[in-house]
Amino acid sequence: MPYIEIEERKVEVNEEGFLTHPQEWTEETAKFLAKAEEGLEELTPEHWAVVKFIRDYYLEKNLAPMVRKICQATGFPLMKIYDLFPSGPAKGACKVAGLPKPDGCV
Amino acid sequence: MRRRKAGPSGVVEAPLDVRSQVQAREEGLLSVAKGRLKTYEPGDNVRKFLDLLGRRVSRPLAVSLTACVHCGLCAESCHYFLARPHDPTMTPVWKADQIRKIFKRYVDWTGRVVPWWVKAGSVHDDEDLNRLKNIVFGTCSACRRCSYNCPMGVDTALLVRFTRGLLTELGIVPEGVFNVSRDQWETGNQMAVTETDYLETLGWMRDELRTELGTDTVEIPVDRPDCEVLYTINPREIKFDPRSIAHAAKIFHVAGESWTLPKWGWDQTNFGLFSGDDKLGAFVARNVYEAAERLRAKRIVISECGHGYRSTRWEGYTWADFDQKRPTESVVITLKRYLEEGRIAVDPGRNTEPVTFHDSCNIARSGDLVEEPREVLARVCADFREMFPNRRENFCCTGGGGLLSMAEYRPLRLEVAKIKADQLRATGAKLVCTMCHNCVDGLNDVIKHYKLPMRVVQVLELVANALVVPEKSSR
Protein backbone atom coordinates (compact mmCIF):
# COMPACT_ATOMS: atom_id res chain seq x y z
CA MET A 1 0.00 0.00 0.00
CA PRO A 2 1.28 3.49 -0.80
CA TYR A 3 1.64 5.92 2.08
CA ILE A 4 2.35 9.56 2.75
CA GLU A 5 4.65 10.85 5.45
CA ILE A 6 3.48 13.63 7.74
CA GLU A 7 5.80 14.78 10.52
CA GLU A 8 7.59 11.43 10.49
CA ARG A 9 4.31 9.56 10.77
CA LYS A 10 3.32 7.18 8.01
CA VAL A 11 -0.28 7.47 6.84
CA GLU A 12 -1.63 4.84 4.50
CA VAL A 13 -3.50 6.04 1.41
CA ASN A 14 -5.08 4.18 -1.49
CA GLU A 15 -3.89 4.34 -5.10
CA GLU A 16 -5.89 7.48 -5.64
CA GLY A 17 -4.53 9.30 -2.62
CA PHE A 18 -7.61 8.85 -0.38
CA LEU A 19 -6.86 7.87 3.23
CA THR A 20 -7.19 4.13 3.83
CA HIS A 21 -8.11 4.66 7.47
CA PRO A 22 -10.17 7.87 7.77
CA GLN A 23 -9.71 7.91 11.55
CA GLU A 24 -6.02 8.72 11.05
CA TRP A 25 -6.91 12.17 9.75
CA THR A 26 -5.48 15.23 11.48
CA GLU A 27 -5.38 18.90 10.51
CA GLU A 28 -1.79 18.37 9.41
CA THR A 29 -2.98 15.61 7.09
CA ALA A 30 -5.48 18.02 5.56
CA LYS A 31 -2.77 20.60 4.93
CA PHE A 32 -0.52 18.00 3.37
CA LEU A 33 -3.24 16.57 1.11
CA ALA A 34 -4.40 20.04 0.09
CA LYS A 35 -0.90 20.90 -1.07
CA ALA A 36 -0.07 17.57 -2.69
CA GLU A 37 -3.39 16.85 -4.35
CA GLU A 38 -4.98 20.25 -4.93
CA GLY A 39 -1.93 22.50 -5.14
CA LEU A 40 -3.22 24.67 -2.29
CA GLU A 41 -0.36 26.31 -0.43
CA GLU A 42 -2.56 27.42 2.39
CA LEU A 43 -5.97 26.50 3.74
CA THR A 44 -8.06 29.60 4.37
CA PRO A 45 -10.93 29.73 6.92
CA GLU A 46 -13.26 29.17 3.95
CA HIS A 47 -11.46 25.93 3.07
CA TRP A 48 -11.64 24.83 6.70
CA ALA A 49 -15.36 25.54 6.87
CA VAL A 50 -15.93 23.11 3.99
CA VAL A 51 -13.46 20.50 5.26
CA LYS A 52 -14.77 20.55 8.84
CA PHE A 53 -18.38 20.22 7.72
CA ILE A 54 -17.56 17.23 5.47
CA ARG A 55 -15.54 15.66 8.26
CA ASP A 56 -18.28 16.04 10.88
CA TYR A 57 -20.95 14.82 8.49
CA TYR A 58 -18.88 11.76 7.66
CA LEU A 59 -18.16 10.93 11.30
CA GLU A 60 -21.85 11.16 12.09
CA LYS A 61 -23.34 9.37 9.07
CA ASN A 62 -20.42 7.38 7.62
CA LEU A 63 -21.25 8.94 4.26
CA ALA A 64 -19.91 11.71 2.05
CA PRO A 65 -22.35 14.65 2.08
CA MET A 66 -24.09 15.80 -1.07
CA VAL A 67 -22.74 19.05 -2.43
CA ARG A 68 -26.14 20.57 -1.59
CA LYS A 69 -25.52 19.93 2.10
CA ILE A 70 -22.04 21.44 1.90
CA CYS A 71 -23.41 24.62 0.34
CA GLN A 72 -26.28 24.83 2.84
CA ALA A 73 -24.01 24.43 5.84
CA THR A 74 -21.31 26.84 4.71
CA GLY A 75 -23.54 29.28 2.88
CA PHE A 76 -21.29 29.20 -0.19
CA PRO A 77 -22.73 29.16 -3.70
CA LEU A 78 -21.96 26.07 -5.81
CA MET A 79 -19.25 27.69 -7.91
CA LYS A 80 -17.39 28.75 -4.77
CA ILE A 81 -16.75 25.10 -3.90
CA TYR A 82 -15.02 24.62 -7.27
CA ASP A 83 -13.00 27.80 -6.72
CA LEU A 84 -11.85 26.52 -3.33
CA PHE A 85 -11.16 22.95 -4.44
CA PRO A 86 -10.24 22.70 -8.14
CA SER A 87 -10.92 18.93 -8.27
CA GLY A 88 -14.45 19.50 -7.01
CA PRO A 89 -16.30 18.31 -3.92
CA ALA A 90 -15.68 14.56 -4.37
CA LYS A 91 -12.08 14.26 -5.47
CA GLY A 92 -10.97 17.53 -3.90
CA ALA A 93 -12.78 18.47 -0.72
CA CYS A 94 -13.66 14.95 0.44
CA LYS A 95 -10.06 13.83 -0.07
CA VAL A 96 -8.67 16.71 1.98
CA ALA A 97 -11.24 15.97 4.69
CA GLY A 98 -9.81 12.45 4.92
CA LEU A 99 -12.81 10.53 3.62
CA PRO A 100 -12.37 7.23 1.79
CA LYS A 101 -12.94 7.30 -1.98
CA PRO A 102 -16.63 7.81 -2.77
CA ASP A 103 -18.22 4.94 -4.72
CA GLY A 104 -19.34 5.16 -8.32
CA CYS A 105 -18.45 7.18 -11.41
CA VAL A 106 -16.18 9.67 -9.66
CA MET B 1 -33.38 -17.88 -10.30
CA ARG B 2 -34.54 -20.56 -12.68
CA ARG B 3 -32.64 -20.87 -15.93
CA ARG B 4 -33.47 -22.79 -19.05
CA LYS B 5 -31.01 -25.54 -19.88
CA ALA B 6 -28.80 -25.22 -22.92
CA GLY B 7 -30.46 -26.49 -26.11
CA PRO B 8 -29.15 -29.24 -28.36
CA SER B 9 -26.98 -26.76 -30.25
CA GLY B 10 -25.26 -26.40 -26.95
CA VAL B 11 -25.22 -22.75 -26.35
CA VAL B 12 -27.97 -20.18 -25.85
CA GLU B 13 -28.92 -19.20 -22.33
CA ALA B 14 -32.57 -18.41 -21.61
CA PRO B 15 -33.55 -14.74 -21.66
CA LEU B 16 -34.50 -13.10 -18.41
CA ASP B 17 -37.81 -14.12 -16.91
CA VAL B 18 -40.69 -11.77 -17.48
CA ARG B 19 -41.20 -10.41 -14.00
CA SER B 20 -42.32 -7.21 -12.40
CA GLN B 21 -39.70 -4.75 -11.23
CA VAL B 22 -40.84 -5.25 -7.64
CA GLN B 23 -40.11 -8.95 -7.83
CA ALA B 24 -36.80 -8.31 -9.55
CA ARG B 25 -35.79 -5.89 -6.85
CA GLU B 26 -36.84 -8.21 -4.04
CA GLU B 27 -34.71 -10.93 -5.52
CA GLY B 28 -31.88 -8.52 -6.15
CA LEU B 29 -31.98 -7.19 -2.59
CA LEU B 30 -32.02 -10.68 -1.22
CA SER B 31 -29.06 -11.51 -3.37
CA VAL B 32 -27.23 -8.53 -1.87
CA ALA B 33 -28.01 -9.68 1.65
CA LYS B 34 -27.11 -13.30 1.44
CA GLY B 35 -26.70 -14.72 -1.97
CA ARG B 36 -25.69 -14.13 -5.49
CA LEU B 37 -24.22 -10.67 -5.20
CA LYS B 38 -21.54 -10.85 -2.56
CA THR B 39 -17.94 -10.23 -1.78
CA TYR B 40 -15.42 -12.98 -1.97
CA GLU B 41 -15.53 -16.03 0.24
CA PRO B 42 -13.45 -19.17 -0.26
CA GLY B 43 -15.24 -22.31 -1.32
CA ASP B 44 -16.11 -24.43 -4.28
CA ASN B 45 -15.60 -21.56 -6.68
CA VAL B 46 -13.80 -23.33 -9.53
CA ARG B 47 -16.59 -25.88 -9.97
CA LYS B 48 -19.23 -23.14 -9.91
CA PHE B 49 -17.23 -21.08 -12.38
CA LEU B 50 -16.93 -23.92 -14.88
CA ASP B 51 -20.58 -24.79 -14.43
CA LEU B 52 -21.68 -21.21 -15.16
CA LEU B 53 -19.31 -20.98 -18.11
CA GLY B 54 -20.77 -24.10 -19.68
CA ARG B 55 -24.32 -22.84 -19.35
CA ARG B 56 -23.78 -19.29 -20.50
CA VAL B 57 -21.85 -19.41 -23.74
CA SER B 58 -24.12 -17.84 -26.35
CA ARG B 59 -23.77 -17.77 -30.14
CA PRO B 60 -21.99 -14.41 -30.37
CA LEU B 61 -19.68 -15.50 -27.57
CA ALA B 62 -18.95 -18.80 -29.27
CA VAL B 63 -17.96 -16.91 -32.44
CA SER B 64 -15.59 -14.66 -30.50
CA LEU B 65 -14.19 -17.65 -28.66
CA THR B 66 -13.45 -19.70 -31.76
CA ALA B 67 -12.83 -17.27 -34.64
CA CYS B 68 -9.52 -15.80 -33.42
CA VAL B 69 -6.59 -16.63 -35.73
CA HIS B 70 -3.99 -14.93 -33.51
CA CYS B 71 -2.98 -12.43 -36.20
CA GLY B 72 -2.06 -9.80 -33.61
CA LEU B 73 -3.86 -6.83 -35.15
CA CYS B 74 -5.70 -6.24 -31.89
CA ALA B 75 -2.42 -5.50 -30.15
CA GLU B 76 -1.91 -2.36 -32.20
CA SER B 77 -5.40 -1.18 -31.25
CA CYS B 78 -4.95 -1.49 -27.52
CA HIS B 79 -3.64 1.45 -25.49
CA TYR B 80 -2.39 -0.98 -22.84
CA PHE B 81 -0.11 -2.70 -25.34
CA LEU B 82 0.91 0.50 -27.14
CA ALA B 83 2.09 1.92 -23.84
CA ARG B 84 3.83 -1.34 -22.84
CA PRO B 85 4.98 -2.75 -26.19
CA HIS B 86 7.28 -5.35 -24.64
CA ASP B 87 4.63 -6.95 -22.49
CA PRO B 88 2.65 -9.67 -24.33
CA THR B 89 0.16 -9.94 -21.46
CA MET B 90 -1.10 -6.50 -22.44
CA THR B 91 -2.39 -7.66 -25.83
CA PRO B 92 -6.16 -8.18 -26.13
CA VAL B 93 -5.57 -11.62 -27.62
CA TRP B 94 -3.63 -12.79 -24.54
CA LYS B 95 -6.35 -11.48 -22.23
CA ALA B 96 -9.04 -13.20 -24.31
CA ASP B 97 -7.00 -16.40 -24.44
CA GLN B 98 -7.21 -16.71 -20.65
CA ILE B 99 -10.94 -17.40 -20.96
CA ARG B 100 -10.65 -18.99 -24.40
CA LYS B 101 -8.42 -21.79 -23.14
CA ILE B 102 -10.99 -22.74 -20.49
CA PHE B 103 -13.75 -22.73 -23.09
CA LYS B 104 -11.62 -24.97 -25.33
CA ARG B 105 -10.95 -27.37 -22.49
CA TYR B 106 -14.55 -27.75 -21.27
CA VAL B 107 -16.95 -26.74 -24.04
CA ASP B 108 -15.37 -26.83 -27.51
CA TRP B 109 -14.81 -30.25 -29.09
CA THR B 110 -11.36 -29.29 -30.41
CA GLY B 111 -10.07 -28.96 -26.87
CA ARG B 112 -11.37 -32.37 -25.96
CA VAL B 113 -9.77 -34.04 -28.99
CA VAL B 114 -6.51 -32.14 -29.39
CA PRO B 115 -6.07 -30.06 -26.23
CA TRP B 116 -2.30 -29.54 -26.72
CA TRP B 117 -2.86 -28.20 -30.23
CA VAL B 118 -5.56 -25.65 -29.40
CA LYS B 119 -3.85 -24.74 -26.11
CA ALA B 120 -6.73 -25.78 -23.90
CA GLY B 121 -6.27 -25.03 -20.21
CA SER B 122 -8.12 -24.64 -16.96
CA VAL B 123 -8.38 -22.83 -13.66
CA HIS B 124 -7.43 -24.89 -10.64
CA ASP B 125 -8.01 -22.85 -7.52
CA ASP B 126 -9.23 -19.54 -6.17
CA GLU B 127 -5.86 -17.99 -6.84
CA ASP B 128 -6.32 -18.69 -10.56
CA LEU B 129 -9.76 -17.12 -10.45
CA ASN B 130 -8.38 -14.10 -8.67
CA ARG B 131 -5.70 -13.79 -11.33
CA LEU B 132 -8.44 -13.94 -13.95
CA LYS B 133 -10.26 -11.16 -12.09
CA ASN B 134 -7.19 -8.95 -12.22
CA ILE B 135 -6.94 -9.54 -15.96
CA VAL B 136 -10.56 -8.88 -16.95
CA PHE B 137 -11.20 -6.04 -14.50
CA GLY B 138 -7.74 -4.56 -14.22
CA THR B 139 -6.10 -4.68 -17.65
CA CYS B 140 -8.98 -3.85 -19.98
CA SER B 141 -11.22 -0.81 -20.07
CA ALA B 142 -13.63 -2.67 -22.40
CA CYS B 143 -13.26 0.15 -24.91
CA ARG B 144 -13.81 -2.24 -27.88
CA ARG B 145 -11.14 -0.61 -30.03
CA CYS B 146 -9.66 -4.07 -30.65
CA SER B 147 -13.10 -5.47 -31.45
CA TYR B 148 -13.62 -2.70 -33.98
CA ASN B 149 -10.31 -3.45 -35.68
CA CYS B 150 -10.48 -7.25 -35.64
CA PRO B 151 -10.64 -8.68 -39.18
CA MET B 152 -12.33 -11.83 -37.86
CA GLY B 153 -15.02 -9.97 -35.94
CA VAL B 154 -13.83 -11.19 -32.55
CA ASP B 155 -15.34 -9.05 -29.80
CA THR B 156 -12.73 -9.27 -27.05
CA ALA B 157 -14.61 -6.78 -24.88
CA LEU B 158 -17.64 -9.07 -25.01
CA LEU B 159 -15.47 -11.93 -23.71
CA VAL B 160 -14.14 -9.67 -20.98
CA ARG B 161 -17.65 -8.68 -19.92
CA PHE B 162 -18.77 -12.30 -20.01
CA THR B 163 -15.89 -13.36 -17.77
CA ARG B 164 -16.56 -10.45 -15.42
CA GLY B 165 -20.15 -11.64 -15.16
CA LEU B 166 -19.09 -15.16 -14.15
CA LEU B 167 -16.70 -13.84 -11.52
CA THR B 168 -19.24 -11.31 -10.21
CA GLU B 169 -21.67 -14.14 -9.61
CA LEU B 170 -19.03 -15.85 -7.46
CA GLY B 171 -18.28 -12.70 -5.52
CA ILE B 172 -14.80 -12.45 -7.04
CA VAL B 173 -15.25 -8.80 -7.88
CA PRO B 174 -13.44 -5.54 -7.06
CA GLU B 175 -14.86 -3.85 -4.00
CA GLY B 176 -15.80 -0.68 -5.87
CA VAL B 177 -17.92 -2.59 -8.36
CA PHE B 178 -19.62 -4.51 -5.57
CA ASN B 179 -20.46 -1.34 -3.63
CA VAL B 180 -22.02 0.39 -6.62
CA SER B 181 -24.00 -2.70 -7.63
CA ARG B 182 -25.34 -2.98 -4.10
CA ASP B 183 -26.37 0.69 -4.11
CA GLN B 184 -28.15 0.31 -7.44
CA TRP B 185 -30.15 -2.65 -6.16
CA GLU B 186 -30.95 -1.02 -2.84
CA THR B 187 -31.70 2.56 -3.82
CA GLY B 188 -32.25 2.44 -7.59
CA ASN B 189 -29.26 4.72 -8.13
CA GLN B 190 -25.54 4.14 -8.01
CA MET B 191 -24.70 6.70 -5.31
CA ALA B 192 -27.46 5.86 -2.82
CA VAL B 193 -29.06 9.30 -3.11
CA THR B 194 -32.30 9.46 -1.13
CA GLU B 195 -35.50 10.79 -2.66
CA THR B 196 -35.50 13.76 -0.30
CA ASP B 197 -31.95 14.72 -1.24
CA TYR B 198 -32.75 14.26 -4.92
CA LEU B 199 -35.78 16.54 -4.80
CA GLU B 200 -34.01 19.10 -2.68
CA THR B 201 -31.04 19.36 -5.02
CA LEU B 202 -33.36 19.82 -8.00
CA GLY B 203 -35.23 22.56 -6.11
CA TRP B 204 -31.95 24.23 -5.29
CA MET B 205 -30.85 24.25 -8.93
CA ARG B 206 -34.25 25.65 -9.94
CA ASP B 207 -33.88 28.51 -7.45
CA GLU B 208 -30.34 29.27 -8.63
CA LEU B 209 -31.56 29.35 -12.21
CA ARG B 210 -34.46 31.64 -11.32
CA THR B 211 -32.02 34.06 -9.78
CA GLU B 212 -29.70 33.84 -12.78
CA LEU B 213 -32.42 34.44 -15.37
CA GLY B 214 -34.45 36.81 -13.20
CA THR B 215 -37.75 35.00 -13.73
CA ASP B 216 -40.00 32.71 -11.75
CA THR B 217 -41.15 30.82 -14.82
CA VAL B 218 -38.13 28.48 -14.87
CA GLU B 219 -38.97 25.02 -13.60
CA ILE B 220 -37.30 21.66 -12.99
CA PRO B 221 -40.41 19.48 -13.00
CA VAL B 222 -40.49 16.07 -11.34
CA ASP B 223 -42.96 13.33 -12.24
CA ARG B 224 -45.05 15.52 -14.55
CA PRO B 225 -47.13 13.34 -16.86
CA ASP B 226 -47.53 13.61 -20.65
CA CYS B 227 -44.34 15.53 -21.34
CA GLU B 228 -42.38 15.46 -24.58
CA VAL B 229 -39.10 14.63 -22.83
CA LEU B 230 -38.29 12.38 -19.88
CA TYR B 231 -34.84 13.49 -18.79
CA THR B 232 -32.65 10.94 -17.02
CA ILE B 233 -29.31 11.66 -15.38
CA ASN B 234 -26.17 10.32 -13.75
CA PRO B 235 -26.37 10.31 -9.90
CA ARG B 236 -23.03 12.06 -9.85
CA GLU B 237 -24.86 15.12 -11.19
CA ILE B 238 -27.12 15.14 -8.13
CA LYS B 239 -24.57 14.23 -5.52
CA PHE B 240 -21.46 16.16 -6.51
CA ASP B 241 -21.92 18.29 -9.59
CA PRO B 242 -25.44 19.58 -10.27
CA ARG B 243 -24.17 22.31 -12.62
CA SER B 244 -25.00 20.12 -15.60
CA ILE B 245 -28.63 19.80 -14.46
CA ALA B 246 -28.87 23.58 -14.32
CA HIS B 247 -27.36 23.83 -17.82
CA ALA B 248 -29.88 21.36 -19.21
CA ALA B 249 -32.79 23.06 -17.43
CA LYS B 250 -31.72 26.45 -18.77
CA ILE B 251 -31.62 25.16 -22.34
CA PHE B 252 -34.94 23.30 -22.01
CA HIS B 253 -36.49 26.49 -20.63
CA VAL B 254 -35.27 28.67 -23.48
CA ALA B 255 -36.28 26.05 -26.06
CA GLY B 256 -39.76 25.95 -24.53
CA GLU B 257 -39.56 22.19 -24.03
CA SER B 258 -42.16 20.27 -22.06
CA TRP B 259 -39.95 18.04 -19.94
CA THR B 260 -39.71 16.27 -16.62
CA LEU B 261 -37.45 14.15 -14.46
CA PRO B 262 -38.96 11.04 -12.90
CA LYS B 263 -39.10 10.55 -9.13
CA TRP B 264 -37.99 6.94 -9.54
CA GLY B 265 -36.02 5.60 -12.48
CA TRP B 266 -33.94 8.75 -12.97
CA ASP B 267 -30.56 6.96 -12.92
CA GLN B 268 -29.60 6.06 -16.49
CA THR B 269 -26.18 4.69 -15.50
CA ASN B 270 -25.89 0.96 -15.22
CA PHE B 271 -23.16 -1.02 -13.47
CA GLY B 272 -24.60 -4.18 -14.98
CA LEU B 273 -22.67 -3.20 -18.11
CA PHE B 274 -19.38 -3.13 -16.20
CA SER B 275 -19.86 -6.08 -13.87
CA GLY B 276 -21.33 -8.32 -16.57
CA ASP B 277 -24.43 -8.86 -14.41
CA ASP B 278 -27.35 -8.92 -16.87
CA LYS B 279 -29.92 -9.06 -14.08
CA LEU B 280 -28.75 -5.79 -12.60
CA GLY B 281 -28.58 -4.39 -16.13
CA ALA B 282 -32.20 -5.39 -16.69
CA PHE B 283 -33.40 -3.94 -13.38
CA VAL B 284 -31.79 -0.53 -13.83
CA ALA B 285 -32.68 -0.11 -17.51
CA ARG B 286 -36.25 -1.17 -16.86
CA ASN B 287 -36.60 1.42 -14.09
CA VAL B 288 -36.05 4.07 -16.75
CA TYR B 289 -38.34 2.50 -19.35
CA GLU B 290 -41.12 2.05 -16.81
CA ALA B 291 -40.78 5.65 -15.65
CA ALA B 292 -41.36 6.80 -19.23
CA GLU B 293 -44.35 4.49 -19.53
CA ARG B 294 -45.82 5.59 -16.22
CA LEU B 295 -45.51 9.28 -17.08
CA ARG B 296 -46.50 8.74 -20.74
CA ALA B 297 -43.45 10.69 -21.92
CA LYS B 298 -42.92 10.85 -25.69
CA ARG B 299 -39.21 10.17 -25.58
CA ILE B 300 -36.40 9.34 -23.15
CA VAL B 301 -33.48 11.74 -23.17
CA ILE B 302 -30.22 10.60 -21.59
CA SER B 303 -27.81 13.17 -20.13
CA GLU B 304 -24.17 13.12 -21.19
CA CYS B 305 -22.99 9.69 -20.03
CA GLY B 306 -21.20 7.09 -22.12
CA HIS B 307 -22.03 3.78 -20.49
CA GLY B 308 -25.46 5.08 -19.51
CA TYR B 309 -26.18 5.87 -23.14
CA ARG B 310 -25.05 2.46 -24.29
CA SER B 311 -26.96 0.68 -21.51
CA THR B 312 -30.20 2.62 -21.84
CA ARG B 313 -30.24 3.14 -25.60
CA TRP B 314 -28.85 -0.21 -26.76
CA GLU B 315 -28.05 -3.02 -24.36
CA GLY B 316 -30.98 -2.33 -22.00
CA TYR B 317 -33.47 -3.15 -24.75
CA THR B 318 -32.21 -6.73 -24.69
CA TRP B 319 -31.59 -7.07 -20.96
CA ALA B 320 -34.85 -5.58 -19.68
CA ASP B 321 -37.21 -7.82 -21.61
CA PHE B 322 -39.54 -4.84 -21.83
CA ASP B 323 -41.56 -3.71 -24.80
CA GLN B 324 -39.56 -0.52 -25.13
CA LYS B 325 -40.89 1.39 -28.13
CA ARG B 326 -40.18 4.97 -27.13
CA PRO B 327 -37.37 6.76 -28.90
CA THR B 328 -34.35 7.00 -26.63
CA GLU B 329 -31.74 9.62 -27.40
CA SER B 330 -28.73 11.38 -26.01
CA VAL B 331 -29.27 14.98 -24.93
CA VAL B 332 -26.75 15.95 -27.62
CA ILE B 333 -29.24 14.83 -30.29
CA THR B 334 -31.87 16.96 -28.57
CA LEU B 335 -29.52 19.95 -28.62
CA LYS B 336 -28.79 19.39 -32.29
CA ARG B 337 -32.52 19.38 -33.03
CA TYR B 338 -33.03 22.65 -31.13
CA LEU B 339 -30.24 24.27 -33.13
CA GLU B 340 -31.57 22.99 -36.45
CA GLU B 341 -35.13 24.02 -35.70
CA GLY B 342 -34.01 27.41 -34.45
CA ARG B 343 -35.50 26.84 -31.00
CA ILE B 344 -32.34 28.15 -29.36
CA ALA B 345 -29.89 30.78 -30.55
CA VAL B 346 -26.20 30.53 -29.78
CA ASP B 347 -23.19 32.80 -30.03
CA PRO B 348 -19.94 30.89 -30.71
CA GLY B 349 -18.05 34.08 -29.80
CA ARG B 350 -18.60 33.19 -26.13
CA ASN B 351 -16.50 30.01 -26.42
CA THR B 352 -13.28 31.34 -27.89
CA GLU B 353 -10.74 28.95 -26.34
CA PRO B 354 -9.57 26.17 -28.68
CA VAL B 355 -11.69 23.05 -28.10
CA THR B 356 -11.03 19.45 -29.06
CA PHE B 357 -13.51 16.58 -28.82
CA HIS B 358 -12.94 13.24 -27.11
CA ASP B 359 -15.24 10.50 -28.43
CA SER B 360 -16.45 8.30 -25.61
CA CYS B 361 -15.98 4.60 -26.47
CA ASN B 362 -19.49 3.66 -25.44
CA ILE B 363 -20.99 6.49 -27.45
CA ALA B 364 -18.93 6.51 -30.67
CA ARG B 365 -17.68 2.94 -31.08
CA SER B 366 -20.51 1.11 -29.34
CA GLY B 367 -23.29 3.67 -29.73
CA ASP B 368 -22.68 4.96 -33.27
CA LEU B 369 -23.16 8.56 -32.24
CA VAL B 370 -20.29 10.31 -34.00
CA GLU B 371 -21.14 13.31 -36.16
CA GLU B 372 -23.94 14.79 -34.05
CA PRO B 373 -21.75 16.19 -31.25
CA ARG B 374 -19.42 17.66 -33.86
CA GLU B 375 -22.30 19.44 -35.56
CA VAL B 376 -23.34 20.93 -32.22
CA LEU B 377 -19.79 21.97 -31.34
CA ALA B 378 -19.34 23.59 -34.76
CA ARG B 379 -22.25 25.87 -33.89
CA VAL B 380 -21.19 26.82 -30.36
CA CYS B 381 -17.36 27.03 -30.48
CA ALA B 382 -15.17 29.48 -32.35
CA ASP B 383 -12.08 27.25 -32.57
CA PHE B 384 -12.67 23.50 -32.91
CA ARG B 385 -9.82 21.03 -33.50
CA GLU B 386 -10.00 17.30 -34.05
CA MET B 387 -7.68 15.01 -32.13
CA PHE B 388 -6.13 12.06 -33.94
CA PRO B 389 -7.17 9.29 -34.17
CA ASN B 390 -10.78 10.31 -33.67
CA ARG B 391 -14.39 9.18 -34.02
CA ARG B 392 -14.73 5.38 -33.82
CA GLU B 393 -10.94 5.00 -33.71
CA ASN B 394 -10.45 7.25 -30.70
CA PHE B 395 -8.51 5.97 -27.69
CA CYS B 396 -10.27 5.40 -24.37
CA CYS B 397 -10.02 8.06 -21.63
CA THR B 398 -8.49 5.10 -19.71
CA GLY B 399 -11.23 5.25 -17.07
CA GLY B 400 -13.79 3.20 -19.01
CA GLY B 401 -15.27 -0.19 -18.19
CA GLY B 402 -15.84 0.83 -14.57
CA LEU B 403 -12.09 1.29 -13.96
CA LEU B 404 -12.71 4.64 -12.28
CA SER B 405 -14.40 2.87 -9.41
CA MET B 406 -11.56 0.35 -8.98
CA ALA B 407 -8.74 2.24 -7.28
CA GLU B 408 -6.54 -0.87 -7.09
CA TYR B 409 -5.88 -0.76 -10.85
CA ARG B 410 -5.15 2.95 -11.02
CA PRO B 411 -1.33 2.82 -11.27
CA LEU B 412 -1.43 0.71 -14.45
CA ARG B 413 -4.28 2.80 -15.82
CA LEU B 414 -2.26 5.99 -15.43
CA GLU B 415 0.84 4.38 -16.88
CA VAL B 416 -0.92 3.39 -20.10
CA ALA B 417 -2.67 6.76 -20.19
CA LYS B 418 0.53 7.97 -21.83
CA ILE B 419 -1.16 7.26 -25.18
CA LYS B 420 -4.12 9.46 -24.30
CA ALA B 421 -1.88 12.18 -22.90
CA ASP B 422 0.17 12.35 -26.12
CA GLN B 423 -3.01 12.50 -28.15
CA LEU B 424 -4.43 15.34 -26.04
CA ARG B 425 -1.19 17.30 -25.99
CA ALA B 426 -0.86 17.19 -29.78
CA THR B 427 -4.15 19.04 -30.28
CA GLY B 428 -2.86 22.18 -28.59
CA ALA B 429 -6.41 22.78 -27.35
CA LYS B 430 -7.18 24.41 -24.02
CA LEU B 431 -10.48 22.60 -23.57
CA VAL B 432 -11.27 18.97 -24.18
CA CYS B 433 -14.98 18.37 -24.61
CA THR B 434 -16.59 15.00 -24.02
CA MET B 435 -20.15 13.78 -23.66
CA CYS B 436 -19.48 11.30 -20.85
CA HIS B 437 -19.20 11.90 -17.09
CA ASN B 438 -16.90 8.93 -16.74
CA CYS B 439 -14.57 10.37 -19.39
CA VAL B 440 -14.60 13.71 -17.53
CA ASP B 441 -13.00 12.07 -14.51
CA GLY B 442 -10.82 9.77 -16.61
CA LEU B 443 -9.46 12.72 -18.61
CA ASN B 444 -9.06 14.83 -15.48
CA ASP B 445 -6.84 12.09 -14.04
CA VAL B 446 -4.76 12.01 -17.24
CA ILE B 447 -4.46 15.81 -17.32
CA LYS B 448 -3.39 15.95 -13.67
CA HIS B 449 -0.95 13.06 -13.92
CA TYR B 450 0.73 14.24 -17.13
CA LYS B 451 0.42 17.94 -16.22
CA LEU B 452 -1.38 18.99 -19.39
CA PRO B 453 -2.53 22.62 -19.68
CA MET B 454 -6.16 21.66 -20.36
CA ARG B 455 -9.59 21.61 -18.80
CA VAL B 456 -12.42 19.14 -19.42
CA VAL B 457 -15.86 20.43 -20.41
CA GLN B 458 -19.07 18.85 -21.63
CA VAL B 459 -21.32 19.68 -24.56
CA LEU B 460 -24.11 21.00 -22.31
CA GLU B 461 -21.73 23.40 -20.61
CA LEU B 462 -20.48 24.84 -23.91
CA VAL B 463 -24.01 25.15 -25.30
CA ALA B 464 -25.33 26.75 -22.10
CA ASN B 465 -22.40 29.15 -22.20
CA ALA B 466 -23.09 30.15 -25.80
CA LEU B 467 -26.85 30.30 -25.30
CA VAL B 468 -28.44 33.65 -26.14
CA VAL B 469 -31.30 34.09 -23.68
CA PRO B 470 -34.06 36.08 -25.40
CA GLU B 471 -35.79 38.90 -23.48
CA LYS B 472 -39.12 37.10 -23.23
CA SER B 473 -37.70 34.02 -21.47
CA SER B 474 -35.86 36.00 -18.90
CA ARG B 475 -38.77 38.21 -18.00
Account of the 3D structure:
The complex is a heterodimer of chains A (106) and B (475). By secondary structure, chain A is mainly α. Chain A has a single domain, classed as Arc Repressor Mutant, subunit A. Helix content of chain A is 50%, strand content 8%. Chain A contains five helices and two strands, in the order ββααααα. A two-stranded antiparallel ribbon of chain A has the order 1-2. In chain A, strand 1 and strand 2 form a beta hairpin. In chain A, helix 2 crosses helix 3. By secondary structure, chain B is α/β, with parallel strands linked by helices. Chain B has three domains: 131 residues, Fumarate Reductase Iron-sulfur Protein, Chain B, domain 2 (Orthogonal Bundle), CATH 1.10.1060; 153 residues, no CATH class; 124 residues, Rossmann fold (3-Layer(aba) Sandwich), CATH 3.40.50. In chain B, 53% of the residues lie in helices and 7% in strands. Chain B has a four-stranded parallel β-sheet with strand order 2-1-3-4. In chain B, strands 7-6-8-9 form a four-stranded parallel β-sheet, with helices on both faces. In chain B, helix 17 links the parallel strand 3 and strand 4. The longest helix of chain B is centred in the middle third of the chain and has 19 residues. In chain B, 53% of the residues are buried. The N terminus of chain B is likely disordered. Chains A and B meet through helix 3 and helix 5 of A and helix 11, helix 12, helix 13 and helix 23 of B.
